[in-house]
Every structure is written in C-alpha cells, then in structure tokens.
Amino acid sequence: MELFPHIKRQDTAVYRAITGEEKRQAEGLELIPSENYVSRAVREANASSLTNKYSEGYPGRRYYGGQEYTDAVETIAIERAKKLFGATFANVQPHAGAPANIGMYFGLLEPGDTVLGMDLSHGGHLTHGHPVTYLTKIFRFVRYKMKNVETGEIDYDEMRKVAKKEKPKILLAGYSAYPRELDYAKFVKIAEEVGAYSVMDVAHIAGLIAGKAVKNPFDYGFDVMTTTTHKTLRGPRGGMILTRENADIAKKMDKAIFPGLQGGPLMHNIAAKAVCFGEALSPKFRVYAKQILKNAKAMEKVFAKHSVRMIAGGTSNHLILADVYGSLGISGKDAETLLDEVGITLNKNSIADDTRSPMDPSGIRFGTPAITTRGFKEKESARVAEIMVETLKHKTDKKRHRVAREEIRRLCKKFPIPASFV
Ligand code: DSN
Q1: Extended strands (E) in 190-310
Q2: Is the CB of 176 under 6 A from ligand 1?
Q3: Is the C-beta atom of 34 inside 6 A of ligand 1?
Q4: pLDDT (tens digit, 9 = 90+) per residue, 167-177?
Q5: Residue at which a domain ends, from 251, 280, 309
Q6: N or C: which end of the chain has fewer CB within 10 A?
C-alpha cells in the first residue's frame, strides 16, 4: 500500500517526517505515560473535512452559518463525555489540557485570587502554577507536597492549615507525575471548609476513570474536572472541562473558553473526541483500563526486585517514577537516551525535591497506556521492565544493547500498533 500518496507527491520533506514518525512508533515501545495510540476511526475523524469549518459559539448558538453537522458532532461529543464521567456539563472545545486549565482559572477566579495546588517537583503540572508560566502574573499560587516521598502520602492536615491561612479560591487536585490515588473526600472537605472550589485535573487518569479502573472524583463531590483527551483516554490531542450539578459554574466555563480564551473550535478534533468517547463507553475499554494498572504493577514488581527506588514506593495507577540516579548511578537524561537507543521511549523527570537540574534530573517517568493498547499483558510488561533495568545497569555494554534492541523490535512486530499505517 502506498502511504500518504498525496503528501508524497506534493511535499517530500513533510512526507519523510510523517512516514519516519510512523516507522519510529511502529518499531519502538512508547512508555511515556501521557502518550498512546489512537484508533483508525479517531485518525479518520481527525483528517475529515470538519477541519475546514469555523464554528465560534456552541451548538445551536453559533456566529457563522452552515453548522448543521458541526452542531451534531459537538453535541454527540458533549453527551458522550457527560455519560462517561457522570458529569452534567461538558465543554469539549479546549485545544489541549493547558487551555482547559487556563479557561477554568479565568472562569472561576479574579486577578489576584489564590490557588492551592500540588508542587511541580512532587508531581504537579506547569499549569498548576509553576513560576515560569504567565499564570503567576495574574493569580497567586501556593503549594502542597507529599508528606512522605517513600509512600506518596499527602499531608492533608498541613493542606488544611495552609488552606485556612491562604484562603484559596480553588483547591486543585491532580498531577502529571504522581503514582498514587488521592483522598478525594478529604480534598472536598477542606475545600468546603475554606469556601474554595474543588477542582481535579484528571488529564493523566481520565481513561482510568472512564474505564472504571480508579475512583471518579465526581463521586466525592468535586466541582470541576479538567482533562486532556489523549493520554489514558486514548483520543486525539485535546482538552475538556467537566462539571457537575452547578449550572453557574458550567456557564462560567463556557464563557471562559469561548469567547474568553479561544476562537474557533477545532471541529475535526471534536469529531475525533466524539469517536474516542464512543470507544471509551464500550465494555472493551474497561478491560483495557484495568489492564493498564495490571501492567504497571507487573513493571513495579521488577523494579522492586532490582531494588530500584520508586517515588511513592511504587504505583497505584499507570505510571512509575524511578530514581535511577540514586539506585543505578545513571542520570535521568542519560537513561532516557540509552533506553531510546534500545527502542524504549520514556522521559527524564525530576523526582521529589530533586537536587539535580530539570534538564538532567535524577529520575525517569514511564507508564503502560500505550503498550497496553498494543496488547501487552503482565508477562510482556515485566519483560520490558527487565530489559530496562538490565540496560541501565550495564550502560556501556553495547552488545547487550544490540540484543535488547532486537528483542524490542520482535515484541513490536508481535504486538503491532492497531492503527499503524506501516
Ligand atoms: N506533557 C504532559 C505529560 O507528559 O504529563 C502533561 O502536560
């Protein structure tokens, strides 16, 4: 089959980049915990003629004509999202997770208001108020941390004390590098005590929530959830805001995303979100979500067997944060490069209170969503973990690395990416 024939004829440079990436993904294992492989149906929706359409506004109240099909597809996405997460409102227009969070802040806060969120070095996200973001020019961010880095325990008493002192308007839960489940009931109680909105950024675990493999923060009374639609949810790259039972908050979220922050929504992307949500509503998706956790546990066991320190002592979700510098004497950056050479892609990551620079930190972060989509079970996941540890332990043994690269290639062939074109 000729791949991307029109791009090939028209634009050789772009054709090379696209086909190169197709091949890279097909022949290597993706362990970055925020990445995944979408289905062929999601890819088709993303490539549809909906990309040609401007649709400022919301279904039934747009600024331009010709909205018969955009209204239909956005409504499908909204209704499916609500059903998936037990929400009463969904805004599916955020272009990504950052605009979803920024829109949420602008909807709920006034300039100068305070947000209490998780420290970046303890697993939080840049948009949770890291000083490098412009958000800190407008809002005030204070932070909470893990009380015990070896167990992942959060100090909720301390959080309550800080909340009472700082009076945040948003108590923000959620993370991009925290491997345990939070105590949602405690979050909501503290938020209620100080009169703050309770918001959870579920970007990393949205697929696990949708697949009922982990708890749903809405069941504990959270006001708002923000998320991306890729990651564990396995849709196109994009964002979304969900709320429950508070029409006033819902209105604020719609106003904040459009016209507050964004212009025309990406309708091809919203169609792809709708397709992804349809997939996530299927019983098969629940099996996938649970397998992600089983696979992560299988990898955790191997790292524990080799006495590699894991932040929070292991994992209760899809990701693991390993202190490779402390345990194996290789920095996160070198580990990332070396594992890339054997066909395993993951990312270097700061560990809690890391003394090394973020560009060459002590840790690596990896996870199981993408390999689970490929069909990996515990056995294959454990084998990959073995290859990882052995490679890192023998960092100069080129022969061993070549053998590992071949084994990864064989695994990739045996478990192809479902929607790959190569
Ligand atoms: N970049 C995403 C991640 O890898 O976790 C979060 O934005």
Answers
A1: 197-201, 224-228, 239-243
A2: yes
A3: yes
A4: 999 999 999 99
A5: 280
A6: N
